[in-house]
Every structure is written in structure tokens, then in C-alpha cells.
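Memo to structure team: turn this sequence into C-alpha cells by end of day. - J.P.
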Amino acid sequence: MAAASRGLGPQSSLSTPPPDSPAPSKDKSSELNILSTYTSLLTSNHTLTAPLAAILSLITILSHSPPSTSSETLSLLSHHSTILKTSLSNPIPATAGTDLFQRYVVGTLQSPTSSTSSSSSSTEDGFKGIRDQLLENGRAFVERATEARGVIAQTAKKLVREGSTVMTSGGSRVVGAVLNAAAEEGVRFRVIYVRAASSSSSAAQGREQEKEKGKDGMLAQLREKGVRVAVIPPEAVAYSVGETTMVMVGAEGVVENGGVVSRLGTYQMTMLAKGKGKPVYVVAESHKFVRLYPLGQYDLPVRQTVLDFRDQDDDDHEGGSESSGVYEEVVDFTPPELITALVTEAGVHTPSAVSEELIKIWY
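Reply from structure team:
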């Protein structure tokens, strides 16, 4: 987990720029660039996580709008990070990426090496070298971070034992990598996959069908390897959990108290598993760690409609949000007491250890 921060570069005791820092002078079209870049990255590369897409978007902004001073750099990143986060119904994954990158930039600009470089030549030429270093190291970090999924799979596959039954949902790419790795080792196991609720929007249903039946979908890949998969609706979770050996899910964000934000229904599934004494494992890359400390479901900084009280029927109403151009699934919060362990590229950790590692990264 600390590797997520260390991989980017030097750290600093300074925090990211305050939200009221002056915004660079940009026209309306340039303000939309960060969102369009983020959307394009996610839609063109389905293996890319949202935090990494946010980091790449900031790198793109920085490379196309080269500031000439440290102050301008920090202001530019803070400004566009705010635009991106306020444009998304669920800003938690993007926040994990933008905060991590800004933290790295602050640490780099305040490092003794950067100060020496700036004073060794003209201010403009010296800062250009620092900016090029920021861009190069940022891209290198994203490249390394994409390999985390494979590292997690090699660690977490040991949790999948012969004859076990794994319950999962959401089509997490990390969970898919873990289960595929276990199948390739010759482990015989079964999977119970909880599909999206039938009341979900057409976009969610389309994504679900792709995960279930698409040639690159997790379930199709597992079935090709001889793994037997049962697909159930959310209302069958309580009925099926007795046949489950473990629950394994991914996460959109890992918060400071060791809990996770994931697709709606994860909280329900983990509660039922806990009641039956079944272990719950969360597999997620450490760049999904976010500075957030929710105490319950309604503390999440998301805009979503789950409880929609109406005095008349409206068949056209659909949950979720597609306002940003990328469908954002409705999410819930799973508290740390329901989680047995969390697996990242740094190893297997209890929720309490996760919170300690996250604090080390940021504080």
C-alpha cells in the first residue's frame, strides 16, 4: 500500500494545494478537457482503473498546458482535479488518483533535488526539466500500477482452495484475475456470481451481460477453464450464501478506516456472509486508497438515487448516472468489521492494518 505513494517519487509533509487556490485562466472548452480526456481513457481501455485514468488525465493536462512555475503547476492540477471530481456522480475513484498525483507533485517540487535543478540554470529551463521529470515519472507509475492486478492474483489465488465455492459480484477485473489464476493452477472450485438487479438501468444491464457472456468477460473465461459458474439475482444471495466458502469482491475505493466502497449490494452480501461465518476478502490495487472516513452509508460523497420516494409510478426512472459520459454504478459502503482481509500488491492485510498503511502514505 505504501508502494502506491513511494512509486511516484519523493514525499513531503506538505498537503496538496488548498481548494481556493487561484485557477489558471482558461476558456470553457479547456475546462471540459479534463472530463473528456478521463471519459475517453476509460471507454477506450476497459482494463484501466478510474484512479489511473484520473492520473493520466492530469498528465495530459500538464503536458498540453505547460506552466512555468511551481505555483502555476499546483494551481493547474488543483483546478482541473476539482473540475473532474465535481463532474462525476461518484468522484471517489477519481479522487484517489488525483490526490495521489498531486501529493507526488508537491513532494517532487519541494525536494532538494528540484530546488538545485531550478537554481542551476535559468528559471524557465530549470523548471522545464522538473516538469519533464514529473511527466515521465507519472507515466512510469501508471505503467507499473497496471501490473498490480497480476501481483494480487498470484497472492490471492492461494485463498481459493480445492472444492471451494466463491461468491462474488460486480465483475471486478482483479477478482477475475485471481479466479483465473487459481483455475490455471488446476484448482477445482465453483463460482456464484451475483448479477445486477433487474431494476438497474439499461447501461448497467449491458455492462453486466458483457461481464457474463462477452468473450473477454470474467465468467466466460472461467467457464472456458472448466470452472462451473452459477449466476443468481441479488434476492437469492441469502438463499445461496450457505453454499459459499468465501466472498471475494473488488473495490472502487478503500477508505481510511479499512472499509471499502463498491457496487451496491456488496454491503448486503458481506453482512449475510458474516452472519454465516463466511470469510470476506477484498482484492484491490493500492492506488484505490482514498482519504475518506465514512461512518455509514450516507456519508459517501456521491450523487446517486437509491431511495426515491414517489406518489406515482414512473417506469422510465433508472438508477445510476450517465451524466459524465461513463456509466457510474450505484455504490455502497462496506465497513471494516465485515471484512476478513484485504489483498493488495503489497500482500494480505487486516482492515486495521490497511488504515495504518493509508495514514503512512498521506500523513
